[in-house]
Amino acid sequence: MKKILLFLFLGAVGFTAYSCDNNDDTVDYDTIAQMKDITGTFSNSGNYTISQGLGIPSTYVVLVYRLVGGNAWQQIPKSVYLPDVSGKPTNRVFDYNFLFNSQNVEIRIDDENFNLASDLTSGEITSYLNNQTFRIVLVPANTTGVGGSNKKASVDTSDYNAVVKYYNLDESKVQVLK
Asked: Where is the signal peptide (predicted)?
């Protein structure tokens, strides 16, 4: 009887030691996608830039979406084509764009075709420059096994809802940055 207990004990210790072995470094379950919201106004004095300090690990990819309408998110970079307006230049186009490094995300407007300070109507300033909300989504660059979704297929990052579903993100837990 004592021999059976000894073998059971050795078997349990061996099983525990084997199950605790973490030599599979291809899957990193402690990197989880995150969402952060920032709201700001683009102005001439700020060089039409909204800047947010963040610590971004080198293993992450940054996606940025602009809130358009009630609950619709549009990925940037995005070109905005404005209609012709009397007294304003024609072919008015500007781009929402962003840059990031390990410490900062900078959302900006590039306006090579015209002057945002003088060539927008007051309605366009309200719609495209004032109180703009952006969602910064940090996702692990290696999508295999991340966030509980062991999927090998890629996700269409231009579709905000697909990103939320793929990474199992909870929109009620979005961190609002100031």
From this structure: 1-19
